[in-house]
């Protein structure tokens, strides 16, 4: 599965897939390198036996690539095919978050957890779910057990603590739906 995801990620980055594009972008694009090392770590972790031993050096490579890109993006995060990280500086994605296919994340985006204390005194930890074809603008913050519906667009600087219906445009702090039935904004959508 990781090979198909890498092909889709490369398609989002370059508008088409080729091994040459994948290698060139992995070397020259600091944000794409994060995606490649994440996929390689996930592939190694899924392999039994000897190939799993490559996970240790791959985790080191991923750590270095996230450091050089100035992002906090765990290799354990469940990410669909065709992720696009634009600019990336300051991006923070909690490992518990789930990200769908053809999602675009801009710099400063935070996908974080939220802890709640239930009436019986137990702690509940929640993580966001980002569905397919979602566009998240610069410095948007999405926390807790919320779902961002398919094809939605989250404006820069928006603070979201409640779920967003599919195909919505959301803006503000606190967040407000400013338009329903919007068209998804996916540049170079990966054919899935």
Automatic annotation (TrEMBL):
Catalytic activity: L-serine + acetyl-CoA = O-acetyl-L-serine + CoA
Gene Ontology CC: one annotated term: cytoplasm
EC number per UniProt: 2.3.1.30
Pfam families (alphabetical): Hexapep
GO biological process per UniProt: cysteine biosynthetic process from serine
Endpoints of the signal sequence: none
Enzyme class: transferase
Keyword Thylakoid in annotation: no
Similarity annotation: Belongs to the transferase hexapeptide repeat family.
Name the record gives this protein: Serine acetyltransferase
Species annotation: Nitrosospira multiformis
């Amino acid at each position: 599965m990781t090979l198909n995801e890498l092909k889709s990620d490369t398609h989002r980055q370059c508008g088409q897939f080729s091994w040459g594009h994948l290698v060139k972008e992995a070397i020259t694009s600091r944000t794409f390198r994060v995606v490649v090392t994440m996929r390689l770590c996930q592939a190694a972790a899924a392999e039994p036996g000897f190939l799993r031993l490559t996970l240790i050096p791959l985790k080191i490579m991923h750590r270095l690539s996230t450091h050089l890109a100035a992002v906090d993006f765990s290799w354990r995060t469940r990410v669909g095919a065709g992720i696009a990280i634009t600019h990336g500086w300051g991006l923070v994605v909690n490992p518990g978050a789930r990200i769908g296919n053809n999602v675009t994340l801009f710099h400063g985006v935070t996908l974080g957890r939220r802890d709640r204390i239930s009436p019986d005194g137990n702690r509940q930890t929640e993580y966001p779910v980002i569905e397919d074809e979602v566009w998240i603008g610069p410095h948007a913050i999405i926390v807790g057990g919320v779902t961002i519906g398919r094809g939605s667009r989250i404006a820069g600087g928006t603070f979201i603590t409640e779920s967003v219906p599919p195909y919505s445009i959301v803006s503000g702090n606190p967040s407000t739906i400013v338009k329903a039935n919007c068209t998804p904004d996916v540049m170079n959508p990966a054919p899935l």
